[in-house]
Every structure is written in C-alpha cells, then in structure tokens.
Structure to design on (179 residues):
C-alpha cells in the first residue's frame, strides 16, 4: 500500500523500490492473494517506469498465474494488461497474443465490476489498437465501455478515462467534431 501511496504522490522510484521489496519478502509458495496483489502491481508499474523491459514478460506471466491460482480477478486483469503491453510494445513477440491478453483483461475487469481497473485497461487497450493502426477496434472498445460505464452510473473519474479513449480515437480518425 505504501508503494501505491508513493506512486500517487509522484515518487515513482520509491514506489518501485517498495513494490520490489514486497515481492522479495512475500513467500513465492504457496500462492496467496497478497503475492498476487504485489506481482500484479509490480508488472503494471513496470509498464511505464522501467528502462529495462526484458523481464516484464516472465514477470507478467507469473503474476497472471498466481492471481488465477488464488482467484483474484482484479489482479489477474492488471497482470494480463501488463503482459499484453509487454508482448506488443516491448518485445514485439506476438501482437495477437498481446491483444488476446488485453481482451481477457477487459472481460475479467468487466465481469468482476472493478471499474478503476476496467477503465485503465480500456484506456490502454484503445491506445494499443491505435498503435497497431486498428482504429475501428480502438473505437469499439472505448465506445462499448463508455456506454456500459454510463449505464452503470460509473463515477466521473472512471467515465472520463473511458471517454478520453473514445475521443483520442475519434481525433486520430480525423473526426474532431465527433470527439
């Protein structure tokens, strides 16, 4: 939790140090909800804050496995998002496997009602599709989520993230008036 507080306060290096320390001291066996939480956050944090990216794919795969083993869908969704990002952006290993990880992450977050995680995954998923020049897919993900968030009466901070994804895609398509 200290890592999350540090990240929110803008201390990314301290946040990474704290989450790395937590991952080091929590026993790897048996899998636990605590380990799932820490590994998922470690993988997610790695996406935007680490220069060295080669270790992200195995870390994200481990985080997904641990979260699935202890039935922690929010952590599994977060780890799947990190795995998808790593597969597409960092290693160019397999765009389709990366997209499949994002689709599974979206489904988990949607099914389990974690609006914050779902909004982050929608934002990153739409960005991923745009980076692959798949603008129709990006728009579909963003607009579907926006409609569902609106139907659920999602808080403005979550609805605005999803709306920004749709607007960014519409602007990229040259449809500024629709954004």
């Amino acid at each position: 939790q200290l890592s999350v507080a540090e990240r929110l306060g803008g201390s990314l290096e301290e946040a990474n140090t704290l989450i790395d320390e937590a991952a080091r001291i929590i026993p790897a066996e048996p899998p636990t909800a605590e380990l799932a939480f820490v590994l998922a956050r470690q993988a997610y944090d790695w996406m935007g804050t680490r220069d060295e990216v080669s270790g992200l794919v195995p870390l994200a795969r481990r985080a997904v496995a641990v979260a699935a083993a202890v039935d922690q869908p929010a952590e599994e969704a977060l780890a799947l998002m990190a795995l998808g990002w790593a597969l597409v952006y960092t290693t160019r290993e397999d765009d389709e496997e990366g997209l499949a990880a994002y689709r599974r992450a979206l489904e988990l977050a949607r099914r389990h009602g974690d609006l914050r995680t779902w909004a982050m995954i929608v934002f990153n998923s739409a960005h991923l599709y745009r980076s692959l020049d798949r603008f129709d897919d990006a728009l579909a993900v963003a607009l579907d989520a926006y409609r569902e968030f609106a139907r659920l009466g999602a808080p403005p901070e979550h609805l605005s993230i999803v709306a920004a994804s749709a607007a960014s895609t519409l602007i990229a398509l040259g449809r500024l008036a629709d954004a």
